[in-house]
């Protein structure tokens, strides 16, 4: 995944002026920066949900991507149940594995019969994660995936993602998520980008500072 000389503005507000950045296989980048630095915009560009004004975003031919952002929850069909949603996505999978999948993501017993329209934000996020991780793509782009999750589900997600062997690019304000899952750090600053070859913990040790906007 290579971004070359990427320019992006919203109206008169310039977000990047010539961004160069490369993500290689198995790297796990956390993206840091203050509010409005352009973290979500970068993830959108990588995911193809937004186009650069100038420059190129190139994906390797074997890249299969999963993109999670808050709007991902809106694509759930309100009248479908949790189970119907999983079955619709994986028609070949059979009942038992899908029930097990739902269970792993906290939908036990009758809860899989709940319609999507009644799900809480956290339940929707869990269902979207289950859809994404059943047959995981080899590049995950995650924009604040733990936002609506309770602690138990967050820990479960961290465990699942630490076993994931693909490449990741993510934004998180959760210290444990950052520390457990990153092996690279990209910092967006007004002066441009800084990259660090180690994970978040090494970044904190080296720079003596934590990510801006950390929640826990
Ligand atoms: N579609 C849009 N139209 C106009 N301005 C936008 C749009 N999307 C983002 N922006 C602006 O661009 C800037 C960067 O936005 P972005 O969401 O990438 O920042 P961020 O670093 O993810 O911020 P936060 O930490 O607050 O989520 C912000 O000032 C934002 O208001």
Give a short synopsis of this structure.
Keywords: ATP-binding, Nucleotide-binding, Repeat. This protein has 216 residues and is an alpha/beta fold.
Main sheet: strands, sense, barrel: 6 strands, mixed
Estimated structural class: alpha/beta
Poorly predicted parts: none
Supply Rg: 18 Å
Name of the CATH architecture of the domain at 2-70 and 132-207: 3-Layer(aba) Sandwich
Average of the residue pLDDT scores: 92
Helix content: 25-40%
Which distinct ligands sit in these coordinates? adenosine-5'-triphosphate
Order of helices and strands: EEEHEEHHHEHEHEEH
| CATH superfamily membership of the domain at 2-70 and 132-207 | P-loop containing nucleotide triphosphate hydrolases
Plain-language structure description:
With 216 residues, the protein is α/β, with parallel strands linked by helices. It has a domain at 2-70 and 132-207: Rossmann fold (3-Layer(aba) Sandwich), CATH 3.40.50. 31% of the residues lie in helices and 25% in strands. The protein is built from 7 helices and 9 strands. It has helices at residues 39-47, 82-89, 95-104, 121-133, 151-163, 175-181, 200-207, and strands spanning 2-10, 13-22, 28-32, 54-58, 65-68, 139-143, 167-171, 184-189, 192-196. It has a 6-stranded mixed sheet, sandwiched between helices. A hairpin with a 2-residue loop joins strand 1 and strand 2 (13-22). Helix 2 (82-89) crosses helix 3 (95-104) and helix 5 (151-163) packs parallel to helix 6 (175-181). The chain is globular. The two termini are 31 Å apart. The mean pLDDT is 92. The structure holds adenosine-5'-triphosphate (ATP).
